[in-house]
Amino acid sequence: xxxxxxxxxxxxxxxxxxxxxxxxxxxxxxxxxxxxxxxxxxxxxxxxxxxxxxxxxxxxxxxxxxxxxxxxxxxxxxxxxxxxxxxxxxxxxxxxxxxxxxxxxxxxxxxxxxxxxxxxxxxxxxxxxxxxxxxxxxxxxxxxxxxxxxxxxxxxxxxxxxxxxxxxxxxxxxxxxxxxxxxxxxxxxxxxxxxxxxxxxxxxxxxxxxxxxxxxxxxxxxxxxxxxxxxxxxxxxxxxxxxxxxxxxxxxxxxxxxxxxxx
Amino acid sequence: xxxxxxxxxxxxxxxxxxxxxxxxxxxxxxxxxxxxxxxxxxxxxxxxxxxxxxxxxxxxxxxxxxxxxxxxxxxxxxxxxxxxxxxxxxxxxxxxxxxxxxxxxxxxxxxxxxxxxxxxxxxxxxxxxxxxxxxxxxxxxxxxxxxxxxxxxxxxxxxxxxxxxxxxxxxxxxxxxxxxxxxxxxxxxxxxxxxxxxxxxxxxxxxxxxxxxxxxxxxxxxxxxxxxxxxxxxxxxxxxxxxxxxxxxxxxxxxxxxxxxxxxxxxxxxxxxxxxxxxxxxxxxxxxxxxxxxxxxxxxxxxxxxxxxxxxxxxxxxxxxxxxxxxxxxxxxxxxxxxxxxxxxxxxxxxxxxxxxxxxxxxxxxxxxxxxxxxxxxxxxxxxxxxxxxxxxxxxxxxxxxxxxxxxxxxxxxxxxxxxxxxxx
Lengths: 263, 425
What we know:
Chain A is mostly helical and 263 residues long. Chain A is built from eleven helices and no strands. The radius of gyration of chain A is 23 Å and the shape is flat. In chain A, 36% of the residues are buried. The model of chain A is unreliable at 1-20 (pLDDT under 50). Chain B has 16 helices and 16 strands. In chain B, strands 6-7-8-3-9-10 form a six-stranded mixed sheet, sandwiched between helices. Chain B has a four-stranded antiparallel sheet with strand order 2-1-4-5.
């Protein structure tokens, strides 16, 4: 970076409160989303308590059932997310090391295919092969959400300035130390945003798990369709949307908390 | 091409202070680096001895192999053939990581790790060497002080909160952290503005005066090479040695056309880079200390015939240079320390002219070790010194006419060329 401003002048520039734009957006989201979710959920609870529901609706929207579906949905999302990180992070690291660099396009291509296949098709095909149930849903969701994590791990690590890596090596850090102490921390913001993208994808796609007996809030929506109860269907959709916002919020907060100071 | 023989018997130029040499000799023997798929070798049979405690500058056009040669010394690049010794150790016999922890490395722009504070950046190598945290933090403060950054103010900052020059200072501190005998520098001051660069160069020279490390420094700037180098290695393509000699000899008698082209025209102007401020007539201006009654200081100045006053702090470091009519208040104030551009007494006359041009006093405040005030110099002093140099050079040239017929010969290492070194104040 050419530096034409004399140090004496630059010294006086106070850079302490200089927050990059991306961080500012994240802070805003982190504050506003819980408010939106709380208000939305409050409105739903108020409607649920005051609306004139018939017996079918009452049983479909009973709180115990809703909580169970919600819990299943969260479980689907988080278990798949953990699986995706556990697979995607080491795979991404490996694909940026000298020996395996050349395999990166092929692997990213496969992951790309996984994501561009329609998610409902992926779920059904896997169910035909593995049988239905929670774990099949997890496999399908994991395949679907691997790409953003894998891609961001690779892009994040490739984005670390080569001079910094060489500086680390030149100072006598081992390859592993350079990865652990320099490359990963510097790539972390990009990696975390991949994880957040994966989380948001997962929470939406998990609504399809119900078709292979995987559970989740999708069950309420499909019940609404099957029973011709518009209110049940919309309730399920609203709950999925609120949960998705909450997961997005979780991702933003994680991003904020893990962002290394100084970058 | 074989530069070893001409220099091994050479005594190192005396660097004034007489501090003990803490550096180690580096010997490159028949070093070749060939990249797969390339016709010609990047470095082809380089032989070189870098004497302990000296600064050797690698210069040459881009692609001449100077950076490759440098990086082979800490094995960031492995030579295809040949051996390198640091002191008595063949570096290929130790682990590369272990070697690098004992060879300082300073990179353009500092290359600080942005997610680590200044202190953590500097502490990397000492921590790798297993120093305890007390010793590490003491060392960090010591180093920050050495590169003129106030430890309490900068220790916990992140690199992006520093200016380019400050980042580079931290980079130098990081390279020196574990007190390595050998320090490698890759275009260390290439990314800062000219004024900052000059300051950083002066600081490096002043640090080197006390440390006497072996410093190998790559630059593409011949002026920087002349200023910093005890010796200059000028490389042609394939890291062929065009000339390896003191700056004085490179300027006075370039070994071939390539060197004279590279050194460039106006080599009498370049002589300005050889002469140091310490050789000038340094005038004693009236000084006043911060907090002293203004009237006393002004009376002192008037009786000495001065119309200005240099204000120094309690460690004798100049903080401002003010006209008497600018003095306000009952006591002397620190003034604007940042806008005072001081000259180290090791700065070149080139730097001196630069600094004077930006000063309203038509002169500059000269400082010595630890930024201590020494005096002031002005244009007249520089001009007078230049005319003295001119006459001396002419006389020398006339005296050397017979010898000039054989310019390819090795230069007599005992020739009295080191005049820039000998008059350290």
